[in-house]
Fold this sequence. Notes:
This protein has 8 helices and 17 strands. By secondary structure, the chain is an alpha/beta fold. Helix 3 packs across helix 4.
Amino acid sequence: xxxxxxxxxxxxxxxxxxxxxxxxxxxxxxxxxxxxxxxxxxxxxxxxxxxxxxxxxxxxxxxxxxxxxxxxxxxxxxxxxxxxxxxxxxxxxxxxxxxxxxxxxxxxxxxxxxxxxxxxxxxxxxxxxxxxxxxxxxxxxxxxxxxxxxxxxxxxxxxxxxxxxxxxxxxxxxxxxxxxxxxxxxxxxxxxxxxxxxxxxxxxxxxxxxxxxxxxxxxxxxxxxxxxxxxxxxxxxxxxxxxxxxxxxxxxxxxxxxxxxxxxxxxxxxxxxxxxxxxxxxxxxxxxxxxxxxxxxxxxxxxxxxxxxxxxxxxxxxxxxxxxxxxxxxxxxxxxxxxxxxxxxxxxxxxxxxxxxxxxxxxxxxxxxxxxxxxxxxxxxxxxxxxxxxxxxxxxxxxxxxxxxxxxxxxxxxxxxxxxxxxxxxxxxxxxxxxxxxxxxxxxxxxxxxxxxxxxxxxxxxxxxxxxxxxxxxxxxxxxxxxxxxxxxxxxxxxxxxxxxxxxxxxxxxx
Length: 511
């Protein structure tokens, strides 16, 4: 009952060692029960699987280790929240398993095996088994008081790539133990409904993309669960010069109101039930206290146009109108971020040291991949590539790959003599329905040292439009060996097609 707009962090203490009771929320529960919800039919309590607020009280009430004999407190807290949700007439929880900095306790990152100080004594399999057990215990405590509860797991249930032992396979170790916990939840869920959040939909815009993400989750993820889709309303304002709330500037945002409306419609058609919205400017949907003039300075610092005094009516209208009939898969160009536009202007104004970067010249069948006049250092590939004449960014042709293998590449060597002591900027236009479908890397091999160094570009956000991916790297004046530019193609959507055009690499003198 003592929660305030200052956000002491209490909302992130349910998964720690501080034990809560129903009476701690007596006034809050009374307020919820007194509210006559009409249009808001499906309400949820959001909380994190990471204790942060305990730093304001007792550090011992922070994150408990999965082997802690007092871990039952976490399960009991789950039962308390479930009781609150049931009495308030809520559907259930939004259960946030993402790691956030600032949590106290011996294990600050609950789902990160590598961060455990005792990992030399306990194997990954042993810890995963314990986490799975805790997931089952927690879920059994929750369903004991609210049997038909609905739980949406955000960002998602584990990125869908798991081994038979339910251990996740992904670069970020902060997520490694999420799948075992979810497996335990499934074992103890009874009649409860568990929903994958699919946060990877944040940057997507079309029904085809949303359906592909859902299909991927169904194919590689947990069985017998539902799937929702997450959308980012004010997507990456720092990349677009802030979030533009004046009508004449709407097209500068990642999604204009028109784009947002069509995106919502497509997402609602693809999801099992829910589409959830994330907003970087918290005052709009999270905390009414921040609408007060004296608190405007507390808005998100990631936006150079803050503070904002109001939410644009056009975006509110988009939320209302998205339920009306629309045409699926309407694609509109997404604006290029300001910093990216500066880099792009620098790249396209200099001499391209790649050969056939526009993919206009092709070998005849059966070889069938783009020419590169620097024989033998031309375009080479290990995948099934094709020349495309219908979806191009410039010229008559682009490179297309349909349903590539799990990983394939196309590469070309770059003359090292023209790059020594300079900065190499590299980029290309990519059109894809899947985030991270294509990336570029500049690989240098130092012959004398016998080692490789890799510089990666950014990735395509997966919005279905043309997007310029790029990167840069400084080449030492005494470099030896070779430089090679790779396109790394990843098949993330069943049946998806990726298009590449306008590949460029330039070497510039910079001091």
